Amino acid sequence: MLAVEGLAAQYGRAQILEGVTLGVEEGEVVVLLGRNGAGKSTTMKAIMGLVRPSAGRVRFRGQEIAGREPFEIARLGLGYVPEDRRIFGELTVLENLEVGRRPAPPGMTPWTPERLFALFPSLAEMRRRPGARMSGGEQQMLTIARTLMGNPRMILLDEPSEGLAPVVVERMAETIGALKREGLSILLSEQNLHFAGVVADRATIIEKGRIRWSGTMPALRAAPEVREQYLSV
Amino acid sequence: MRWYGRCARRVEGLENIALQALSGLASASSLFLVASGLTVIFGVSRIVNFAHGSFYMLGAYIAWSLVTRLPRGDFGFWGGVLAAVLIVGLLGAAVEVLLLRRIYRAPELFQLLATFGVVLVVQDATLALWGAQDLLGPRAPGLRGSVEILGLRFPRYELFLIAVGPVVLGLLLLLFHRTRWGTLVRAATLDRDMVGALGVNQRWLFTSIFFLGSLLAGLGGALQLPRESVNLHMDLSIITEAFVVVVVGGLGSLAGAALAALLIGELHAFGILIFPKITLVLVFLVMAVVLVIRPYGLLGRRPAGLIAPGPAEPVIRPAPLALRRLGLAALGLAVILPPFAGDYALSVLTEMAIMVLFAASLHLIMGPGGMASFGHAAYFGLGAYGAALAVKWLALPMLPALALAPFAAGLAGLVFGAFCVRLSGVYAAMLTLAFAQIAWSAAFQWVEVTGGDNGILGVWPDAWAAPKLAYYYLTLALCLGGTLFLRRVIHAPFGYALRAQRDSPLRAEAIGIDSFVVRFAAFALAAAMAGIAGGLFAFAKGSVFPTFLGISRSVDALLMVLLGGVQTLAGPIVGALAFTGLHEQLVRLTDYWRLGLGLIILALVLFFPQGLAGAARARWEARHGDA
């Protein structure tokens, strides 16, 4: 589904990514683990074209997408859920969803606001509420729902559990499980190892802009020294 | 300024007040059409579109051509207006595709410069196509004559205009809130990168918003046809008013534009009755007050982009040796050659020296200071007026009068700066513009003291400096001294503090730099230096006029700095020399010098985004390795 090879990116003169290689298979949930500032968000932005990669290849469903514009990448079926949510604060819940709407590829049941409200029941009660007047958890739901309106085949989920109350994090894990059952491929970035353990099939660890370790979740559980070296604070 | 003359009737009684209010509504309505276009364009593209006034003017001219050629009657008139409006919309879209699309990531002032290039090109294109004389359009069929309201006669067409504003506002609100396109536009106004990441092609969105915005400007212009003559000054007079409305309302806010248009329209209508002597000041005074109390306009919000400063500007490094030699050689020529030059050449050289100091003073604010000034001519002009008034009213000789210039300008810099440096970006630029316009209006309308439009004549140098050569050397000495002093300031600890607060306000505060004080001091210093340039200019020309403080001189200063390059110290010098030289040559060669200048600006914006000095330096370093 997604194959990233030697992806590099920089802000001004500061090199943030120094060759990131990772892959996500169809229907798989892969978690990108790493400490603050390790390059998780930049990896996602560089895949999405929001940060222009300075080197490397990104193949999505067989097409080279590195260096292409974000809207073209989105139209190929790659959805992006940013870490800071970036809800359109003055637009209502329904309008936020409308901005994300794109036609579904043939053979896929398109996401509609009603289907999404079934997945995120709390949103159903605030269809006409402006995004700015929602709680952090509700905004996080909305930003995922908004991306799903584009009927993507895969989504990049940047730190979905960040800043959320434990109860909401648990619901988020259930939601991700439900999306996986829909057949969606997911690359998610996390600092919360427990959350990652619940939702992911495989893990990739990034530090200082490089991939340091890759393996299945059981393998990561069996490797305390890896967790100690790259993840403990 | 457009809306004043019409309202100058004597008013007695309540009926007249009611009529005056209606007249204000008609003005407000026209103003809203133009301002709404400007504000939606800004909302999405973040471009302060100077060329918006040009589309207004083109709307009027194209409508005139179509309406006078089509058969008379309803179809001829309204069909012509409609076609003109659509043509203008397409022209706006074309400008977006050909020019603005390439510079969305450029600094704000650079984009402004680009749109100003379009203004110049359109001015001369209009002159070439339609000629210099004012054109009169036909009356609107079905809306001729007047109706009786409260026993007084009121033009029917004005009533129609009053209705157009709210109708357009209603249609725009429907468009923005009831269509998918409108929802996308509103989303893009809030966070355009996110909209792109959701699969929306922003190019198409931007082009369409320019189509709509320009169409509204064209509509505003075309609807003036039955009301007043079509002329070549429509563009700049409307753009200033529209800026005021948009800024007072809050950039990007449609409802704010409507509210502000109402406020400004009525202010025009009643200002002329209550304060006939300060009508011009009034509007800008209101804008200044609004911005001081509500920095982001009546209904505006703090723009998200302004909170996080961009990446730090490149460090100012000492010039390579070769460049220093080149500078010294140029200076040597400036000292040695003039005795062999004629009077005309001496005048040009004197003006060049003055402009170098003027540009260098603006550069201190814009480059190291990281602030935008759209009204730097105020300080230049106040220096000139300070010196001229000292000669006229105090009968001072030249040198003491010249010595007064930086104090007059510096004082204004202190007062205006205290408000301006609190804001940032477009809002700061607009507040500096407001203050400059207040100064300009005072020079224009305070006839008893300043002589108004006739200016102050007979401001000649003392006998010893009367020969052009002597005055040139005096100017060169003072301007060179001033420019070197400014360079010294940039390399002094004060200059470091100034650049520190520009690149990282928070970190600068954390190490004990009071950003406000530093910016304020730089602003006042720049104003005083511009004042010296202005004083010298007054004696060089032998007279002062309100145009010394006008918008176009502020724009000249901006052009010089941006032409040369903001982030090099040589930039303002190179820019001032290039601009002044170019301007002289173009004016001598052709009547269409604006076209030439406009095209050069556009070429620069597209091909040398770092300015002349910046581009030269980049090439030098590419050839000789990083210095």
Return the string of H and E elements of chain B. HHHHEEHHHHHHHHHHHHHEHHHHEHHHH
End-to-end distance of chain A: 32 Å
CATH architecture of chain A: 3-Layer(aba) Sandwich
Largest interface in this structure: A-B, 26 and 19 residues
Write the CATH fold name of chain A: Rossmann fold
Write down the oligomeric state: heterodimer
Radius of gyration of chain A: 17 Å
Sheet having the most strands of chain B = 2 strands, antiparallel
Computed structural class of chain B: mainly alpha
Per CATH, the architecture of the largest domain in chain B is Orthogonal Bundle
Mean pLDDT of chain A: 91
**Would you identify the regions of chain A where 5 or more consecutive residues have pLDDT less than 50?**
none
Q: Please give the count of helices of chain A.
A: 10
Counting structural domains of chain A, the number is: 1
CATH class descriptor name of chain A: Alpha Beta
Biggest beta sheet attributes of chain A: 6 strands, mixed
User: Percentage of helical residues of chain B?
Assistant: over 70%
State Rg of chain B: 25 Å
* Spatial sequence of strands, sheet with the most strands of chain A: 6-7-8-3-9-10
CATH C-level class of the largest domain in chain B:
Mainly Alpha
